[in-house]
Amino acid sequence: IVMTQSPGTLSVSPGERATLSCRASQSVNNNLAWYQQKSGQAPRLLIYHASTRATGIPARFSGSGSGTEFTLTISSLQSEDFAVYYCQQYDNWWTFGQGTKVEIK
Amino acid sequence: QVQLVQSGAEVKEPGASVKVSCKASGYTFTKYGIHWVRQAPGQGLEWMGWINTDDGIARFLENLQGRVTVTRDTVATTAYMELSSLRPEDTAIYYCARTGIRGSYYFDYWGQGTLVTVSS
Q1: Gap between the Cα atoms of B61 and B6, Å rounded
Q2: Residue from the list A90, A97, A99 with its beta carbon closest to the beta carbon of B105
């Protein structure tokens, strides 16, 4: 299953909303996770089962979608949210999207 | 608390092998699988394979078949990933990550990563 994320880079001002997209080449049901990776760090789980926040993840992060179309929304970007975000399907083996970099505008 | 602690950085020549370890603590080792994910410099995440730590069965990405071996030691609560016939394009950070065994197959905890450099 091929996962395609868009856009490749998203320029956003602090306090603004960010919307990241992820599309699967075939249905993955709701077996979709989102990870955040900051420079020099390991990825961190944000969202699983498409919309469930992982332990300790702030409420400004939300996930939605099912089947082939998914969205990660960050409602009001904080300075610590500028990072690369990956989606991953775990319905049929495991594959990651190529990532979306969220940078400061 | 759950921790996955990986072995240190390695520098290898082309054609050699490397073995990376992932020491788990803070949970029952055999109730969760361990995956291996790599990230080439400046690139995205590539899933490599995983091991069911309960029965020891491992599965790998097809294009790595024959070069990668994943094992575990349930007494030492450690998983190992060995990659052979190394090529310069295998230069990457290698991560281990924890997953559920019976459902919930997302990766909830990650190791800190191990940099493997392949160079002559």
Answers
A1: 21
A2: A90
Cα-based distances in Å from B31 to A39, A45, A52, B86, B104: 31, 19, 22, 32, 12
Q: Do the strands A9-12 and A100-104 form a parallel or antiparallel pair, or are they unpaired?
A: parallel
pLDDT at B62 over 90: no
For residue B109, which residues of chain A lie inside 8 Å, CB to CB? Answer: 45
Contact B106 A45 (CB under 8 A): yes
* A54 at B interface, C-beta within 8 A: yes
- What DSSP state is assigned to residue A6? E
CA B36, B50, B67, A28 dihedral sign is negative
Residue B6 clears pLDDT 80, i.e. is over it:
yes
pLDDT at B66: 86
- Count of C-beta atoms within a 10 Å radius of residue B72: 22
CA triplet B63, B66, B72: central angle to 5 degrees?
Answer: 105
Q: Which of B43, B45, B44, B51 is nearest to B68 (CA)?
A: B51
Asked if residues B106 and A48 have their Cβ atoms less than 8 Å apart, the reply is yes
Host H or E run for residue A70: strand A69-74
